[in-house]
Recover the amino acids of this structure.
């Protein structure tokens, strides 16, 4: 029966039915709300290969497209099952046995097995891949031998059957599950990621809640709900990521209804909070804001006195109050409030221009004489430019001349990171570090250990054997109360003795999101951790549309 005939038959039948007095007319059907979230990112994600995911832009996309064995519950940061439905840890803390969920599929339709976990984790340790995040698995038994080419496989990985995967560590690591919840530990399909042409960079394939449907670089990216997602199809049909470099343009687009969500504001933030009280949200964030020194090149190499002069010259409180309107708090160290091991007694650096001038003399640059003008590298962002100008003015008052160099984010990262062997071009630069997991190791190990010099995290190329020793010792202990004194000692050396960078502020998390977006959960690990698969769009008044 055709659709037309079926409709006719139903209409005829309706005429034959008796009329019942007192029946109210049926309520009109509610209009279907378009389940499309329109969000802004300032530019393209630099790394859509999760094994290289080391910045917030890349993490945002990779967390939507990929899943790993485990995940963080966004707010509490408790470890919860993801691709693995359960796991067991041996009494000695060395062996982790994971049981995979049945029926997990990649976006290409293939069912995942433990061989995919084996491939993905081995790939992270493969020196040919040169993963920026290989250290998340560096504690696995045999990882070092495999990385040096002394073994064909990683002995600490095994896939005894299609639904079981076993990891054996060299030493207990109490936060190992947290490392497996980071974006880099995603499970990827070999048939896609073995491609020597690396087509997966334009068309990544994972098993996460969304898949990349279309990507016009520097314009937009369409993320489409994955219907076979193992935790159930997301409520959103699509996430439209619009790349808008200018915060002012993005803010204007948000106000007129062309965006539903953005994590950067322009103008007076206190005014925005008053004007858009239902949209403005604020939450704690485990992240630090600082200006880094390239310790691999002069003038900062081997000159702690110069680095201390920079620290004493800057008025952190004024920077936080005036430039950031109290949304950031002055920092005196590396660990942020809320991080285990945060030390409020750490002395750090006060604002003291006279001391700054004294340390310039000790550094060999009295009154700044002999010190060449330095480029301060900043990625294009109005607030960051304002912060750079404030620091520039403070430094100039003691005789240090700085020129601000604003570039796009990809160029910015490339100029900072260099390689493990060669320092980057940027000598002085703004930087921010967002913890991947709630442990002091997430800051101190990645930012200070000489093992991570270069793109892995220690882009300042800081190296102190005593700090390395303390961090390695802390990593080998299980009890947090035993680990914390070691981390605090390492932090004190890096801050008060070595002045590893120009310490500025601790971030808080602030976003704008329309009130009709339901299911929003802000995580202390950052806005990239907002679980997009939990969001939905509720009925709301007409707003502007933005289509690619």
């Amino acid at each position: 029966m055709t659709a037309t005939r079926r409709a006719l038959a139903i209409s005829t039948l309706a005429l034959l039915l008796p009329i019942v007095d007192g029946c109210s007319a049926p309520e009109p059907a509610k209009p279907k709300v378009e389940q499309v979230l329109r969000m802004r990112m300032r530019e393209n994600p630099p790394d859509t290969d999760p094994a290289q995911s080391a910045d917030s832009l890349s993490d945002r996309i990779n967390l939507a497209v990929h899943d790993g064995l485990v995940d963080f519950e966004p707010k509490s940061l408790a470890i919860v099952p993801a691709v693995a439905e359960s796991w067991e840890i041996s009494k000695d803390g060395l062996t982790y046995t994971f049981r995979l969920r049945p029926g997990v599929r990649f976006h290409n339709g293939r069912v995942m097995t433990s061989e995919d976990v084996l491939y993905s984790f081995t790939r992270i340790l493969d020196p040919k891949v040169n993963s920026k995040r290989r250290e998340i698995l560096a504690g696995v038994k045999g990882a070092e031998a495999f990385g040096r080419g002394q073994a064909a496989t990683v002995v600490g990985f095994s896939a005894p059957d299609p639904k079981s995967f076993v990891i054996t560590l060299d030493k207990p690591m109490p936060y190992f599950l947290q490392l497996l919840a980071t974006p880099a530990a995603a499970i990827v399909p070999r048939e896609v990621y073995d491609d020597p042409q690396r087509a997966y960079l334009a068309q990544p394939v994972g098993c996460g809640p969304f898949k990349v449907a279309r990507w016009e670089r520097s314009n937009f990216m369409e993320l489409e709900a994955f219907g076979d997602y193992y935790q159930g199809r997301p409520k959103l049909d699509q996430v439209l990521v619009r790349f808008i470099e200018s915060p002012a343009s993005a803010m204007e687009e948000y106000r007129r209804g062309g965006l539903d969500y953005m994590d950067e504001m322009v103008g007076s933030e206190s005014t925005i909070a008053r004007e858009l009280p239902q949209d403005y949200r604020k939450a704690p964030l485990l992240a630090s804001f600082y200006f880094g020194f390239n310790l691999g090149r002069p003038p900062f190499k081997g000159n702690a006195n110069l680095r201390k002069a920079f620290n004493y010259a800057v008025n952190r409180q004024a920077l936080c109050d005036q430039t950031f309107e109290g949304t950031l708090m002055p920092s005196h160290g590396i660990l942020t409030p809320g991080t285990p091991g945060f030390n409020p007694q750490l002395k750090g650096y006060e604002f003291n221009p006279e001391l700054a001038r004294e340390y310039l003399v000790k550094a060999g640059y009295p009154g700044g004489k002999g010190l060449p003008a330095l480029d301060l590298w900043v990625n294009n962002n109005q607030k960051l430019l304002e912060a750079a100008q404030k620091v520039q003015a403070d430094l100039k008052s003691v005789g240090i001349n700085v020129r601000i160099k604003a570039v796009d984010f990809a160029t910015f990262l490339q100029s900072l990171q260099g390689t493990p062997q060669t320092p980057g071009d940027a000598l002085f630069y703004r930087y921010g570090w967002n913890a991947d997991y709630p442990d002091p190791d997430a800051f101190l190990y990645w930012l200070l250990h000489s093992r991570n010099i270069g793109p892995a995290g220690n882009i300042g190329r800081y190296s102190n054997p005593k700090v390395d020793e303390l961090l390695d010792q802390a990593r080998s202990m299980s009890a947090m109360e035993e680990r914390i004194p070691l981390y605090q000692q390492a932090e004190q050396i890096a801050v008060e003795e070595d002045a590893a960078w120009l310490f500025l502020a601790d971030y808080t998390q602030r976003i704008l999101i329309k009130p009709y977006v339901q299911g929003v959960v802000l995580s202390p690990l950052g806005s990239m951790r907002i679980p997009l698969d939990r969001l939905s769009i509720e009925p709301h008044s007409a707003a502007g549309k933005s289509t690619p």
In short: The CA atoms of residues 353 and 397 lie 8 Å apart. Residues 67-191 form a domain with the Dipeptide-binding Protein; domain 1 fold (CATH 3.90.76.10). The first helix runs from residue 3 to 16. The chain has a mean pLDDT of 92.
